[in-house]
Amino acid sequence: MHRRHLLTTLIAAASLPLLGRQLLASTVEHKTVTDFTPLDHPHDYWRDKVSPEAWRVLFEEATERAGSSPLDKLYEDGTYVCAACHLPLFRSEDKYDSGTGWPSFTQAIPGSMGTKRDFKLVWPRTEYHCIRCGGHQGHVFNDGPQPTGQRWCNNGVALRFVPATENLPALRG
Prior knowledge:
With about 170 residues, the protein is of the alpha+beta class. It has two helices and nine strands, in the order H-H-E-E-E-E-E-E-E-E-E.
């Protein structure tokens, strides 16, 4: 009886480092934010809250250079939030390599985006923006993979990636 107790204790003690490592690497549930108030701040409100490059993309509808964002090739588990107001916009499981040089997704988190027609180029496109702060994110095209057939082509500088092991930041603004 004592040998069995000793053996059980030794096995439990030996597995503690493995269990601890597993607990440290566990993921935090990133819930969809559905209870928020759209913001009506002037664009200058965000100027000191994001980088100059992010501000130009978010509030002047600029486009970052293709291939310039480290988020383009990032495929870790987590959530992509708006760089300005931190509203969750995309889940990592919806991200794919579109070959365009910009982070691309098959869909946005439902209720997170607003859209409008954009006539800046010769043909009309669908621009999308954070529904909470109005920050420009990118354009959606109908040339993506299944299941949606859509490519949500995003400026990386307009996003912040939150790994699944971290809590989502509080909404700001």
